[in-house]
Amino acid sequence: EEVGKVQNLAEAYLGNSLMTRNANGSKLYGNISDSMADVIKNVISQMDYAFISQFEDEHDMYAYIDSILNAFNDLKVDDRNGLDVFFGVQTKLNNGECSVGDYLAALDNVKSIVSKFDEDTQTKLNVILGLNDNEFEDQYQGLLDKLTRHGMDAVSAENWIKGLNAEQFSKAVKYMEVNT
Asked: For the chain, how many helices (H) and strands (E)?
């Protein structure tokens, strides 16, 4: 119940922050796209007790939210576009509308963008963007390793995997787990 109250506070604060305008009438966080805002909102809606307990009080939590908003808002145009591409590719991958190769290229690009920040901001962005979860990359590498161990040359195996969509990739990973 306490987690729900804190989530509500955080969601209200975030919503208010995203709508706040500065003295000249423009949005304070006007560089944050709808897709970026959705990612931040999603993170807040999934806060659990362990995450919330890191804050001393609500002001500490608000400062954390502000630091995330500032990090996204201060991105250069190319980097903001790169993040938006990544969010789009994630959706397309989940819907079977893009290849593993397209997803991996967007993932590499977003990791490069995040690496430009200081260590504290990198940590926050890695959590928000789910970059700490290496399951997909581990599955990719595991499948690549198994294919090459079974005689497929590395370049052909890599090209084949990168041409798969998410469903095909998942099936290939499961097949190789069961049959090798």
From this structure: 10, 0
